[in-house]
Amino acid sequence: MHMKFSEDAENSYFFSQPHQPFFVLAFINAVVIMFIFLLAYNGKINLAIPPSDFHAYGLAYLMFTPAFFAFLFTTFPRFSSTPVIEKKSYMRIFSFYYIGSVLFILGSIVSPILSVSGMLILLAGHLLGILILKNRYMLSPMEDKHDIFWILLAMVFGLVAHFLFIIGELFVESFIGFSMEVSVYLYLFLLAFSVAQRMVPFFSHCMVERNDTLLRNVFLLLGLHILLEGIVTNSSFIVDLILAYIIAKELFRWQLPFPNPNPMLWILHLALYWIPVAFLFGAMSNFITLINGTDFLFLDIHILMLGFVFTILIGFGTRVTIGHSGNMMQAGLWEKILFNWTQVVVIIRLFTSMMAALGYNFLVLFDISVTVWLLMFILWAIRFFKLLIFGKKLGE
Prior knowledge:
Shape: globular
Strand content: under 5%
CATH topology: Cytochrome C Oxidase, Chain A
CATH superfamily: Cytochrome c oxidase-like, subunit I domain
Order of helices and strands: HHHHHHHHHHHHH
Mean pLDDT: 95
Radius of gyration: 20 Å
Distance between the termini: 33 Å
Number of strands: 0
Oligomer: single chain
Number of helices: 13
Helix content: over 70%
CATH architecture: Up-down Bundle
CATH class: Mainly Alpha
Largest sheet: none
């Protein structure tokens, strides 16, 4: 069976570029994980692990991580001026992610033993993928490795968080919360921001001089945020305010041409503008929770993850998919609908948290928020899977 898979991979268009299988797997996982989470949250099915753990782990390591590898295996060689990543190398990583995803999802329903087996396979794939990127970093002839250093460092923090999550699931439950703090801030956010601060000004033709202290300062503040949260939950609101200020100031310095008539650009700009908004919401919600215990349903994390990371993932993912399939780099009606729909996902999730904080029954809004998420990924798949799997042109 493995030989047959290898032969199919060798001859298939689907596996001809690294972003294709990884994006397809990430988007399928996004739909499956959220659908199962919706059923579990509403008590329709029982999971072998807590639904909140399933949700957090599934999105971080079965959806976002394969999507990041899809992008980085395509672009990191260019960033580092090194040769492209060989098919046998990225296919080995894809095999780990494919098998690990299946075992984790099935195990979460059937048996925690299967689930943990899947997590260990995914961790191995995560490690091997980072080693490929590290190899490109070490081989790079470039003197200026500033951006690729921060990208690689964020990936390493993702691996650390991944390992801590598994330890928490198996032995020390308190590790899970710390793991997710590291994953959200020093992995998912820092990685997406490290790429965005390099690529978005370039795409937007903003010839602004790079701020060499930005990523270092953001990194230190994110680390302080995690430290404070570890000491006293919800005590990081001052750090969040500082992050909102310095990132807003940096975005203002870039002078991005927004609103932009090109949807391929304004979706990226909009994602960046969500960052200071998310940290402001985080500061507000953490301060109020610290004072009177109001539950905002993880508003700070969801606005940052949906407003910025998810939105820019759709923007970059769409751009890479169109650009590497021989299509014109332009957005038609489908793309405009998808880009606008990302903001529907963010706003409804925001309202869900606010309704919960005000004491209203938020379950209907919660179901709606998951439904619009599922619709987002299903519509994206309908539009782009034919490009990724078969190499068809848009409109065929």
